[in-house]
Amino acid sequence: MALLTADQITAADDRSWEDVDVPEWGGTVRVLCLSGTDRNAYQQSLVVLGPNGSVQRMNMQDQMARLLAKSLVDENFQRLFTDKDIKALGAKNGAVLHRLSEIAQRLSGLRKEDVEAKAGNSDAAQSGASTTD
After folding, report:
1. Distance CA 59, CA 102 (A)
2. What CA dihedral angle connects 69, 70, 75 and 77, to 10 degrees?
3. pLDDT at 121
4. Residue 110: what pLDDT?
5. CA separation (Å) from 68 to 23, 77, 102, 120, 125?
6. What is the DSSP code string of 10-63?
7. How many other C-beta atoms lie within 10 A of the C-beta of residue 106?
8. Other CB atoms closer than 10 Å to residue 97's CB: what's the count?
9. How many CB atoms lie under 10 A from the CB of residue 69?
10. Whole-angstrom Cα distance, residue 23 to residue 30?
11. What is the pLDDT of residues 1-24, one digit of tens each?
12. Looking at residue 124, what is its pLDDT?
């Protein structure tokens, strides 16, 4: 298999999504997996650092709404909610937010079992010679 170029990687359509019926809201929403940048921002928003840079505590306030604000998109894959809309989204039915956030976590590889599965697959031996020192 040939090695990919930077252009091929950036051109690849690699983000998955699911359209999910939400009867409580009277329709369907599209849940898109997070980009790497959005995933990092979401994960960073969950951690409060202390003065010495170590983790002081977890910030779970509106964590489902923060995830969904980055994951719910329209038919053109544009976000439905900005970060400024998180409080309003967080005020919606908690069961619905939980259901949708479970889907967003699965699509984005954020569930504990997803992380553990990937960690188990990372032990594969490297093939070929390395050109780095």
Report:
1. 18
2. 160
3. 58
4. 94
5. 17, 13, 10, 28, 37
6. HH-----EEEEEEGGGTEEEEEEPPPHHHHHHHHHHTEEE-TTSSEEEE--TTH
7. 16
8. 19
9. 22
10. 14
11. 899 999 999 999 999 999 999 999
12. 47
Give every residue of the chain whose pLDDT is below 70, as ranges.
Answer: 114-133
Domains assigned to the chain: 16-34+61-116 (3.30.2220.20)
- Look at the block and give the residue holding tokens 């003065």: 51
Query: pLDDT at position 32, please?
Result: 98
Residue 44 is classified by DSSP as H
CB atoms within 10 A of CB 46: 15
Which residue type sits at 97? Answer: L
Q: How many other C-beta atoms lie within 10 A of the C-beta of residue 72?
A: 19
